[in-house]
Amino acid sequence: MSESGKSELHKLVAKQLAKATGSSGELDIALLGRLMSTAYEEMEHDRRRVDRANKLMAEELNELTGNLERAAEDLRVQNERFEAALDNMSQGLCLLDSEGRIIVCNRRFLRIYGLPPDTTVADRPIAEILAASAILERPESYLELIPARNGATLHQELNDGRIILVAHEPLAGGGSVDTFEDVTERHRAEVRIAHMARHDPLTDLPNRVLLRERLERALLRAARGGQCAILCLDLDRFKTVNDTLGHPAGDALLQGVAGRLRECLRNTDTIARLGGDEFALVVEMPPSHDHLRELAARLVEQIARPYDIHGHKVIIGVTIGIAVSPQDGLDAAQLTKSADIALYCAKTKGRGCFRFYEPQMGELTRERYSLEQDLRKALLAGELALFYQPLINLRPRRINGFEALLRWNSPERGLVMPGAFVPLAEETGLIAPIGEWLIRQACRDAAAWPEPLKLAVNLSAGQLKSHALIPCVQAALDSSGLAPARLEIEITESALIADTEATLLTLRRLKDLGVSVSMDDFGTGYSSLSYLRRFPFDKIKIDRSFVKDLGQRPDAIAIVRAVTGLCSGLGMQATAEGVESEEQLAVLAGERCTEVQGYLFSEARPAEAVAEIVANFGFAAAEEQTFEPRGNEASGRSARARLS
Amino acid sequence: MRVADMHIDPLTWNATRGWRPSADRNDDAGLVLYFGGNEALSSGSWFEDLRSLYPQAYLLGCSTGGQIGAGELGDQDIAAVAVRFDSTRLRLAAQTVEDPARSRDYGAALGRQLAGVDLVAVFVLSDGLNVSGSELVVGLVATLGSTVRISGGLAGDGSRFCHTRVGVNEFPQSRRIAALGLYGSAVRVSYGCGGGWENFGIPRKVTRSEGNVLFELDGKPALDLYERYLGDEAAGMPGTALFYPLKVWDPAHPDRDVVRAVLAVDRQARSVTLAGDVVQGSRAQLMRGEFNRLVEGAAEAARQALSPPMTGPRLALVVSCIARRMLMGQRTEDEIQAVADLLGVDTVRLGFYSYGEIAPHATSGACELHNQTMTVTLISEA
């Protein structure tokens, strides 16, 4: 017990003694005892209170300490999560105070600027941190943003070529949160997309968009004095390569062509691929017409050199139309149109050449444009029709079948013969859908005829080279239900000239379908006999020119005789086309010709007339039966669809 | 300088001897103040005897938790003083309590009764159980302004907390409030107020309270805390809850703390009712009294009252909290002795252990209800 405690007790005892001592000085022991025991009890109570309070206080402090420790642990975990989240952001992040000092930043931020990950950043000015970056040369543009109270973004280009997008976002209480994103890939992609929007992906040449811009720029310069030219280029026979060797070969060829075109240019010239096999060239300030002429000639020569495509030797050509500003057009559209017209004319005059635009070319071209547009509409509007001409068996005399012949019932032009539109269809590629329509429609018509009447259909050289031919014929047979044996495919000698092996393969496949194959216009080609040896034709059709000369030129009969002899020797049928008189018929019958067709029996007539022809003639007539030409028929040549 | 003529006679009453006035009794005293235990106040003819001893005096007193007279601390007797002022005028006002919730109004009404240009000080005695002491003082201050100093206390009932009485020229009754006004330029009044309680344990947050009812601390019932700390003594609540007053402060102003004692408990609601409002969101910390520090707190009250020093006869009205007595037991006399030693033999002391002390704040001077303190009101005439 302390000294002061002792003295307090002494005072207490003294008081108790005083209280227990009566006025006469006697001590009331009992009272003293009560006072003392009460005092002890009071002290004991107080001691217990203090004890209890201390114990409870300790418990509460323990609990509080536990809570604090848990809170600290929670905070630590929270902090770790926060740091993990911060450090795994794809962007760099910096929290800055109002003085531009870093409160916190993540590792990505340091990595972006090539700073060591252990850089001490807290409370240091960001200007000082960035100054240590070897790859950021000019931090000023960003540092100037920091005091701004508005959000802002900017692109930084680092020395290593990366592009960083910086976003500055001020905070309400001062300072800012700034993010740093490596947008190099995005930036490159944007550049790439911008390039792709103006370039042809296959050849990487400028496309139509960029060509137009360059042409307009060149025209602007030319307007200040000078000239500017555009050359429109169209590859010849490119479609053939594409059809026969396939698209990959076509693509390789286009790349080869692009390479050669580039070699022929000056730096100021622009060569563009417009699509397909079309190219165009803008020549700024050509020194002279002669320069353009020489350039065009060089292009024709260079393009015509053989290409080695996947081991195949390929030869194509190019046709060029040239227009020069200001005389051929003052704006891009007009000048390009003039060059197109010149190209068109060049193509009609024979490919593999170039033509400068001349004002009179316009009229011719307009007519052809108009025909082409009408023909496109005709196909959709159902204006094309098939006419049929009977093929007459001579012994016995009866109808073997009909040859399908194409006509165009144009509301504006009347009945148009194939000679007036088929060449254009071939040039423009319209021949493909027309040919497909023809086979399908003819098969459908023939399926309604009495058996065993046959159908003869002409194929163009283009159709023969197309991979789509066999599926097209198969589909036409399948959908019409016409027996393959009733279909005859006629091809001309000229169709056989190009790429003979592939053509012969196609012919064999046709025969595999059960279809018979005839050689049309025999005698007008080059090496007829070698084809006859290499492919088992079912029939040879003697060209009308020989029939027409029968009785007038002695060599005509010799040729007819040779062909019919050849046919009987090789087991083929011999058919004579264009039989117009009894005399011709008599000669042909005498020369062992087995089948004829011509005005003598019937002109080509609409599908609805087939039944009538058959009824009048009888397709299994007796040998003795004779035919009289119909009195009301107009004389003249039958214009047959020759799709080649 | 005129000679002060204020005269103060101590006197006592007990059941066997009756009133024992001093030899030089002033039967022309204007004021008799008395404090006695409920038992003494309700027995015998002490009131009539007092009235006949001092026929002209205001008779003002109340029940106590022990009274402080000239002699030792007593419970059985009645301690009193008869005072004759030279030039100081007195006025006595009374108020009957009908609704404890109207305590502020009662304070205001008493203030209106006493208001006057030369009113210097007011001494208040109030029912200790049916009046909100803090509200009562607020009402008085609101009417009288801050220049009139107010002191006094709430009547007590030992450690029983059953009923308290106040007498205003009549036999003491419960539900009464008395207020004595001292008027004139001669009267000198000084005050002291000291506690000595020490906060301990953890600071807690007042998570739920309504007015002076405290429901929760740190989300737990307030009564649980008291029961835990009191242990066996919890059965003696609300009395024993006084061992642990609460220090309460606004976290924004931690230096402006107040001490709140527990007046009542609600075992159903698990709440404690405090002698003053406690704002939800404020902080609270338990306090406890170590005997020597409590004694030092009482001494501090006496020192404050003595500054600046007074000359001539003077009356010290000592009001101390029942909690101090309950805690200190026999050592309670130590604090009375400490005050007596400082005040000196020239000072006549009278006082009681109360259910609430009223005095100006030691530093701010604002009059308010204190809890668990010793207050000293020192009166003299110049």
Task: Outline the secondary-structure elements.
The complex is a heterodimer of chains A (644) and B (382).
Chain A: H1 3-20, H2 29-87, E1 92-96, E2 102-105, H3 107-112, H4 126-131, H5 140-143, E3 152-157, E4 163-170, E5 176-182, H6 184-198, H7 208-223, E6 228-236, H8 238-245, H9 247-263, E7 270-275, E8 278-284, H10 289-304, E9 307-309, E10 312-314, E11 317-325, H11 332-348, E12 354-356, H12 361-381, E13 384-393, E14 398-410, E15 414-416, H13 418-428, H14 431-446, E16 454-458, H15 461-465, H16 469-480, E17 487-492, H17 493-497, H18 500-512, E18 516-522, H19 528-534, E19 539-542, H20 544-548, H21 554-570, E20 573-576, H22 582-590, E21 595-596, E22 605-606, H23 610-617
Helix pairs in contact in A: 1-2, 8-9, 11-12, 12-13, 14-16
Chain B: E1 7-14, E2 18-21, E3 31-36, H1 38-41, H2 46-53, E4 58-63, E5 67-68, E6 78-84, E7 89-96, H3 103-114, E8 119-126, H4 133-144, E9 149-154, E10 166-168, E11 176-183, E12 187-194, E13 198-199, E14 204-210, E15 213-217, E16 220-221, H5 222-230, E17 246-250, E18 253-260, E19 262-266, E20 271-274, E21 283-288, H6 291-305, E22 314-321, H7 322-328, H8 332-343, E23 347-354, E24 357-360, E25 367-370, E26 374-381
Parallel strand pairs in B: 3-4, 8-9, 22-23
Antiparallel strand pairs in B: 1-2, 1-6, 3-6, 4-10, 5-23, 7-11, 8-11, 9-24, 12-26, 13-21, 14-15, 14-21, 15-16, 15-20, 17-18, 17-21, 19-20, 22-26, 24-25
- Major sheet strand order of chain A: 13-14-16-17-18-19-20-21
Arithmetic mean of pLDDT of chain B? 91
Give the overall form of chain B: globular
Oligomer: heterodimer
- What's the number of helices of chain A? 23
Number of strand segments of chain A: 22
